[in-house]
Amino acid sequence: MSTFWNRxxxxxxxxxxxxxxxxxxxxxxxxxxxxxxxxxxxxxDFSGKVCIVTxxxxxxxxxxxxxxxxxxxxxxxxxxxxxxxxQAVQALQQMQPASGIMAPPVRSExxxxxxxxxxxxFLGHWRLVHDLVANQASLRRPRKAPAQHTADSDGASLRVxxxxxxxxxxxxxxxxxxxxxxxxxxFLGYANTKLAGILAIKEFQQRMDRCNGRxxxxxxxxxxxxGFVNTDLANGWLTGSDVVPAAVQQIIRPLVRAICPxxxxxxxxxxxxxxxxxxAPSAEISGKYIAGGKVVQPSRQAQDDQLSARLWExxxxxxxxxxxxxxx
Length: 328
Ligand SMILES: NC(=O)c1ccc[n+]([C@@H]2O[C@H](COP(=O)([O-])OP(=O)(O)OC[C@H]3O[C@@H](n4cnc5c(N)ncnc54)[C@H](OP(=O)(O)O)[C@@H]3O)[C@@H](O)[C@H]2O)c1
Prior knowledge:
Layout: H1 2-31, E1 50-54, H2 59-70, E2 74-78, H3 82-94, H4 116-139, E3 158-163, H5 186-211, E4 219-225, H6 232-240, H7 246-263, H8 267-279, H9 282-285, E5 289-291, E6 294-296, H10 305-318
Helix pairs in contact: 2-8, 4-5, 5-10, 6-7
């Protein structure tokens, strides 16, 4: 009973509440004819900054890439498909970790033998973040202060913003079965990767802070729940995953697609929270979880130091990573 409560009732109730809030906000925006959600102008000047956005050809990644580009940043679009990436570049030119998948109903594995969501949403990004930060640390000459135009006022030259989700409240990380070989549930797999993201950010930050006395590299890590956003990912989950019985999916799909713009946040509005994470003072957000445009407390599990240390060990082993000195 308590498992059912934690994994289903709690996340779906919190989700339903967020849908309701979105509905009210979207109706309000629509009524205010002169200020729709898409014309809001979130803050940020990214001149002199280089931003790598994963999954930048679609959804939140694409809107983030556009928002940073429009604010003077140099954007690197990290996409798995060259042609979809090039289409996104063209769209950017005409006018800124976000790749992920959500709750496929059937379990599948990557060529590395890992559950797909675990690798795409979590371990791939964990390794990317580790290597990027480690690489920067190795390039940095000892004792040289970070250049003013690339560093934050407190000297952090690198910021990692990891897209996670409030669905992390429904997670249960079983280290004996991280790949969900027994009793797969798409939603549990997704929630686990989102909890893992928050834990990883906390661990990256703590390790870097401990090392900072010995190494010149300084980086800021934070995780963001962008809201429930009207993208293919959220649409696909609402209309096609294990949340809805297969028999009724066909019937309700058009209806759900029609109401999505009302109960979900637009990608450009979601970007406001990401831009806050990208531009807020380092001390305010370092190692923190951000939702609704401000730092909030994630679930108790997500604040558990033993859990994050254990996940770090598992990630290191599964990705066969030699941990860089700046994280030791
Ligand atoms: N939408 C929401 O309500 C919501 C809420 C909370 C958190 N998030 C998180 O935000 C992030 C972006 O979600 P979104 O809603 O923008 O999704 P989206 O519109 O479906 O975009 C997903 C992106 O991930 C890429 N991707 C998918 N599978 C991949 C793989 N195997 N390898 C590399 N890239 C892959 C896609 O590339 P292709 O185009 O090549 O498939 C696409 O660029 C995800 O981490 C998601 O969990 C979303």
